[in-house]
Amino acid sequence: MRYCPASMLYGLRLLVLGTAGMITLAYAAGLWTVNADDSEISVRFKQMGVPVSARFDRFEGRIQFDPAVPRNSSARITVDTASFDIGDEDYNAEVRKPEWLATEQYPQASFVSTSVSADAQGSFIAHGDFTLKGRTEARDIRFSTEADGDAQVFEGSLTLSRKAYSIGDPDWNEVLEDEVVINFRVVATAD
């Protein structure tokens, strides 16, 4: 076999360029897995006019994000409804009951995007299906994103009506406001 350094260098160059191309494609695709330990999904509402905060402790998700071509992006976030924590175990147990979150019957809430678009303010809007307590509605969720070291951070919020999802006994309507705001700060790491 004839030794041909020029051919070897050419082959090596193709290998390097090919590998770089694969890395570039992976980066452009922006595949991310949610790191729940560093993330937060919180809930705010008012009871008798007093702000109340709670959070979900368990959730997971996968995000494909391409800021240059947002329509190529997608996300699926799933929340364990039984992990709702309002800071008191008696209240938590109450909220798991059928008249509230009904966590045995509906153990998960989710958001699955169908498309993503950019807005004029530099933020993005994820269009998709939000499911809670067995009801699925098309929702738009505005979010911003930025790099944080090796991670990508996605922040935004979603406002919903608890009555629309049959959350809460009607007897509570005079003391518990209908509006519920879900805030999220999701930290995701590249696959």
Describe what this molecule looks like in 3D.
This protein is α+β, with helices and mostly antiparallel strands. 17% of the residues lie in helices and 48% in strands. The protein is built from 2 helices and 11 strands. It has helices at 5-29, 89-95; strands at 31-34, 40-47, 50-56, 59-64, 74-80, 84-85, 108-118, 124-132, 135-148, 151-161, 179-190. Strands 1-4-5-7-8-9-10-11 form an 8-stranded antiparallel barrel. Strand 2 and strand 3 form a beta hairpin. Mean pLDDT is 87; it is low at 1-28.
Beta fraction of the residues?
A: over 45%
What's the number of helices? Answer: 2
Succession of helices and strands = HEEEEEEHEEEEE
Helix coverage percent of residues? 10-25%
Distance between the termini: 42 Å
**Approximate shape:** globular
Give a count of the beta strands, DSSP E runs of length 2 or more. Answer: 11
Gyration radius, rounded = 22 Å
Pick out the low-confidence regions: 1-28
Integer average pLDDT: 87
- Largest sheet geometry: 8 strands, antiparallel, barrel
Strands ordered across the widest β-sheet: 1-4-5-7-8-9-10-11
> Structural class of the secondary elements?
alpha+beta
Protein name: YceI family protein
Domain Lipid/polyisoprenoid-binding YceI-like: 31-189
Pfam family, one: YceI
